[in-house]
Amino acid sequence: MNQSYNSVLLDTAVAELSKLPGIGHKTALRLALHLLRKEPETAYALGSAIIEMRKGIAYCPVCHNISEGGVCQICSSPRRDRKTVCVVENVKDVITIERTNEHSGVYHVLGGLISPLDGVSPSDLEIESLVKRVGEEGVEEVILALSPTMEGDTTNFYIYRRLADLPVKVTMLARGLSIGNELEYTDELTLGRSILNRTLFSTNGE
Amino acid sequence: MNQSYNSVLLDTAVAELSKLPGIGHKTALRLALHLLRKEPETAYALGSAIIEMRKGIAYCPVCHNISEGGVCQICSSPRRDRKTVCVVENVKDVITIERTNEHSGVYHVLGGLISPLDGVSPSDLEIESLVKRVGEEGVEEVILALSPTMEGDTTNFYIYRRLADLPVKVTMLARGLSIGNELEYTDELTLGRSILNRTLFSTNGE
Questions:
Q1: Pairing of strands A105-109, A169-172
Q2: Among A5, A92, B38, B69, which one is least packed by beta carbons within 10 Å?
Q3: Any chain A CB within 8 A of the CB of B76?
Q4: Closest CA to A33 of A56, A53, A7
Q5: Nearest-angstrom CA–CA distance, B23 and A21
């Protein structure tokens, strides 16, 4: 729907805003009018933050996480264990895992998951660079931290096979009951899997 | 929640995006990462469209609709009937009414509705300027096109009283059944009102 609001400037802003994912024409108009009501500085700050971010942020050549130029902070930190590489789907997952404070190694961002239905094949992802990295840098453990979905499992399996000939331990995130969830409401697949993968009882929470 | 993503530029963009109404921290991060994935031109176009819009758009001194400088296109159009003024809550309502192609007059944008609960009093709205405009410009009809809500009705009544001493006809939008809606699902208030305000049957749709 291409509507005109008697203002090319407003039309352009609405058109650009509605290109964002999850933002339709109506929401874009609402956001634009909101910015027009606020003091001009709000719009200037938003506009320049977007431009500066896009100008300044590149991707780390090692792990493909975002970086403000060159190798990212995680890869270049002397406190991170570079022999343990956690493989994730995207930049957001790096943030999510960092928040747990349980991973002291580095990352490898694939940029997506293998999904033939969506036309995403292994060559569209950073899998070759992972295999090369593992081979050349003497990585000792690759932790597959992909979503427990069809696409995640396909990608897990593909990477596992590609790494099969290299002397590296390949692990994956544990699957089981969510902490705090009631057994009654856990889906059958997860429950079945958590029976198969049961662990020895311990009292220190591990 | 103030999270750091190892990048001041990303943090800033996320903070600015999440100031928008209806956009929380998670959505802001999703939008920022989307812009980082797309080619840089997408982000530059969005950022500058927002800045240019805010720079270039002002409000019409006559009707308070948006305008790219000076009196707006509607007020300055020789084809619009300047004796009929449609009073609306905001700029979005001008767009909505324009789309019906049923109003050939001009507008007056109040900038809100009287709402004591939200701290909006008549002096916060463009009501004085409406009264002045009606008195000075010989307006013949004021169409109150506000939402049929408590705030809309309060504002309607306030404006009606303020215009009582002036030789102007004050009308309001018809209330009744929505076209295409089933009688069964129409709320009682609207149905009751549409019985009280029933019109003579005619076959030409008026």
A1: unpaired
A2: B69
A3: no
A4: A7
A5: 12
pTM: 0.71
Query: What amino acid is encoded at B182 in this protein?
Result: E
DSSP code string of A120-162: B-GGGTTHHHHHHHHHHHT--EEEE---SSHHHHHHHHHHHHH
- B90/B92 Cα distance (integer angstroms): 5
- Report yes or no: B58 at the A interface, CB cutoff 8 Å: no
| List of residues 6+ apart from A27 with CB closer than 8 A | A17, A18, B22
Q: What ipTM, to 2 d.p.?
A: 0.73
Tokens of A114: 């293998």
Q: Comparing C-alpha atoms, which of B162, B152, B173, B105 is closest to residue B130? A: B162
Residue with tokens 């018809």: B174
Identify the structural domains of chain A with CATH numbers, from first to last: 8-55 (1.10.8.420), 81-200 (3.40.1360.10)
- When CB atoms are compared, the residue of A35, A66, A91 closest to B50 is A35
**Subunit contact A66:B29, Cβ cutoff 8 A:** no
| Residue numbers in A near B8 (CB within 8 A) | 68
